[in-house]
Amino acid sequence: MSIRSAPVLMAFVASLTLLGGCASSTKLSDLWASKSSDDAAASTSSADATGSIVTPPAEPGPSGEPVAPLAQPGVLGDDPHDDLQLGKRYFRSNNFGLAEKSFRAAVEKHPRDAEAWVGLAASYDRLRRFDLADRAYQEAVRIVGRTPEVLNDIGFSYLLRGDYARARKTFREAHAKDPANPYIEANMQLLQESASTGKAVQ
């Protein structure tokens, strides 16, 4: 699903980090769970479930012959086998190398898709390529801004690195923008526990 609005990005980010073992405030978790479910797609034959484009019935032309309507292009994430959806499935199965390849292919084809950039960044986090994660998060911020969801994921990236000061600052910024967000609250608690025990988050 291409990012058309901040709520869609939020859906992707929450699922991504939550499924990767951390709590994220973006609703990416909802998106991962619903849009990439092969079981849901298999349980129904509707085009909405399979990601295919429904072709409306042909309408009669000026002389009465049927004229096929122009095909409507799909969006990134509609096809359960596109790079974005593959990246999500690989990420959920902890295959971060293949997730990175799929998300990288997605951003190369759709450079304005913040959801794909966040997926790429989270994959780099798990591969401990934090320099590349920073670049990918910057692209997501450039597209949708410093939303609480993206900030939460950036904060978690700092937490993975053991950079508690930057993680705390980033989580606080996210929390100030969305005080009721349970994912941000969970990550702030995780930060406090990790900092007090000295046990790194994996």
Description:
This protein has eleven helices and two strands. The chain has one domain (about 5-50, about 75-195): Tetratricopeptide repeat domain (Serine Threonine Protein Phosphatase 5, Tetratricopeptide repeat). It has about 200 residues and is mostly helical. Helix 8 (about 130-145) packs antiparallel against helix 9 (about 150-160) and helix 10 (about 165-175) packs antiparallel against helix 11. The longest helix is centred in the C-terminal third of the chain and has 16 residues, at about 180-195. It has helices spanning about 5-20, 30-35, 40, 45-50, 85-90, 95-110, 115-125, 130-145, 150-160, 165-175, 180-195; strands spanning about 60, 65.
Kindly state the percentage of residues in helix. 55-70%
User: What does the main sheet amount to?
Assistant: 2 strands, antiparallel
Order of helices and strands: HHHHEEHHHHHHH
Count of individual beta strands: 2
Q: What features would you highlight for this structure?
A:
single chain; 202 residues; 2 strands; mainly alpha; two-stranded antiparallel ribbon; Serine Threonine Protein Phosphatase 5, Tetratricopeptide repeat
Set out the fold topology.
Blueprint: H1 6-19, H2 28-35, H3 38-42, H4 47-50, E1 59-60, E2 66-67, H5 83-92, H6 96-109, H7 114-126, H8 130-144, H9 148-161, H10 164-177, H11 182-197
Antiparallel strand pairs: 1-2
